[in-house]
Every structure is written in structure tokens, then in C-alpha cells.
Amino acid sequence: MTANHHLDDASIVRYASGDFSTEFVVVSASHLAMCSVCRKAVALAETAGGTYLDTLDTVELADDALPALMQRLDDEAAGTTAGASPAALPEHGQEDTLPLPLRRVVSTPLDAISWKSVGPGIHKHDIQVNKETGQSLFMLKIAPGKKVPEHGHGGGEMTLVLSGSYRDDLGWFGPGDIADLDEHVQHQPHVDSITPCICLVATEAPTRFTGWISRIVQPFVGI
Amino acid sequence: MPAALRVVEASYERASMPDVDAHKAMIARIAADKDRAAFKALFLHFGPRIKALMQKAGASSDIADDLVQEVMMSLWRKAHLYSPEKGNVSTWIFTIARNARIDRLRRQSSKPYEDVEAIELASPEPDGEAEMYVSQRSERVASALAELPPEQKQIMELAFINDLPQSQIAEKLSLPLGTVKSRMRLAYGKLRPVLEDLA
After folding, report:
1. Does residue B36 sit in the same domain as residue B22?
2. In which domain, by residue range, is B21 found?
3. Is the ipTM of this complex over 0.85?
4. Element housing A162 (H / E)
5. Residue A130 and residue B65: Cβ atoms within 8 Å?
6. Per mean pLDDT, which range of A22-26, A99-103, A134-138, B8-12 is the poorest?
């Protein structure tokens, strides 16, 4: 699958250099899982990293660095240390539509996720990845035909469509498409799929998002 | 230039082509035969560079030494996953070092990176001349980086070498965040033609 809306070039650089918080890495990586164009773009930026590694002035290693390393090889060959085997992934079955990097942090298949209502036609599922960053990662499920009131962002925001679709000033967003927005962008997503639109969202400023949610909810509560 | 603005001046002298090919052969020998001589040779070449990278990112000498061991052990275990069609050895080692830096120095998780790498491995390059393309790409990226205007070069080095978050780059250089972002975009834009011309 290849997407039509991609990561911003500054985000490609930040991903490749390792600058993003886990929240933004999970959304970027989930897009990359679905987008070979952006994987190539990241590989290009990583080539820059390789160039920098080549050009650094070397620093002398600790005296025992080589023997210590050889000892580790011996230990590993003797099976006395556990090799770095990747953490087992929860099996979600055939129906699963969640990209691999997201499956690590969401323990249930898409159709078994517990949603909490945050307004008419809008449900949210919080994903806890790192308490220290102060950033947020969550999924939104927005009912067909729903229009999210126009909103800006307190900081950067990345929205990846997992299923369904929406349209806004920036275009049409279907599965695999990412809206990689900085704090100055305003948009008003309108779900145009016959099924709910499920998105994965990372935001830099959770407190502003609370405001964002209440601004969504406000007009409906007022009815 | 005030001291606070002084950043790494990379020399842009690159490993010679025979080195690049020799490194690939060494990884292949580790993957096939767990060849310790090849592993030692790679350690002697890259170890001091990995340590330099970690210290530039703010690690103490002890922690940097520790991370060198970690990165080299990952290289040993994952040698069979290295594919020369995807990139040079130094690029691959940079990604292993970056992941170690994320886990240890940033205290974040590099797992999503490993997932993307697994997905990329599962999607082979259709192009038969992919390996040629990779070595040309590295050469062209190195010259594009060397030719960046100083203000873009500085930001790329602070991001890749010094591991500074975008917000701290802005703070350090007394620039608005948006300016840092647009300089990153401009710098990356100079690399992009490498993808398009060789694709």
C-alpha cells in the first residue's frame, strides 16, 4: 500500500536522527509500515547519519573494551546470556488491520478496542506509552458524516488514518494517509466513509487537546 | 562565532571505497561463520566512532563505552539481517547506534524503529542494480551534505551528531522553532534529488 499524504521532510529528518518522542515515533512508524515512499525517504536521511558517523573524529575506547567485548561473545556462545530476542507480539489474528508498530502498544485487535465517548459520534482510546514526555497518543473513532469543528493545535499533531476516510482543506485522507501538521494549521475533518473513520493521533500539547475536545463537545452539549 | 554557537565541524573525509566494500564483506563473514576476526576489524574501525557519536550526544565516557559494547553486540547478533542493497555498513551502524541512543540516552523506545526495519526487510528491492545505487547514494549524500549552506549544515549536525531535540536546537541558536524546521526541510530538500535521480 502506498499513501497519498506523507510525512513532512522535517519529520523525516527528526525520525531518522531519533528526535521524536515515542508517541510521535509510533504514529510515524505506523505510517512507514504502510508507505514505501516514506521508508525510502527515511533511508536517505539515515544515509546522512552514516556519513556523519564516518566523518567524526575518533575517541579512544576504554583499555579493556576489546577483551570485554570478546568475553561477551564467549558468554553468548556458551548461552549464559540471553540474546536480544525481540519482544513477543500479541497475536491479533487474520482480521487485524493494525500496523506492526501500533500492535506493540495496543493489546487488542481493532474490533475489540475499548472506546470511551467524548462527544456525539466521537470516541477515544488513550494509549499510554511514556508518562514522562507530556505528549499524548490516542485513537479516535468518528462516526460517518460527522464533521469535527474547525480547530487549531497547541503544538504539532500527527493523524494517521487506519480505516475509513475524511476530507478537509488539505484533501482526502484514506487508510495509510498521514496529516503531519504543525501548530499553525487549522483544519475541519469531515468523515465521508460509510464506516467510522478510525485515526491514530499524537499531539505535543495534551492540555490544549483537552480544550480541543471540549470545543468539539461544546456545540453538541449546547443543543 | 560565540562559543555557544560553535558546533562540530565534520571534516567530510569519507571512508575510501575499498573500505566500504571490505566492511560489507566483514558483515557477511560474521553472518555466515560468526567470524571473530572480521568482528574485531569492524570494532577497531567503528568502535571509536560510535563512542565519539555517543559523547557528542552528551554521554559520559563510561556510558559511551558501554553503548559501544551494546551496539557491537547488536551488530554481532543482527549481522544476518544486514542487506547491502539497503545501505552501506556505516548507515546501518548509525541506525543501530541511534536506536541505542534513543533507549539509553533519551529513555524512549526504539521498538517502532525495529518494526519498520523488519517490514522493510520483508519488501525486497526489485531493482537488480540496487547495490550500485546504494554506494552512489552514499557518495552523493556526502557531497550534498558538504555543500549545504552553513546555517543548514549546523542544524543537520546538531540533530544527527549532537542528538539535540528540535526545540533545543531552536533555543541554542536563538531561532524560532519554525525557522529550525524550515532549515531542516531545506537541507533535506538538497538530498532528495539523490533519490529521484537514481530511482
Report:
1. yes
2. 15-124
3. yes
4. strand A157-163
5. no
6. B8-12
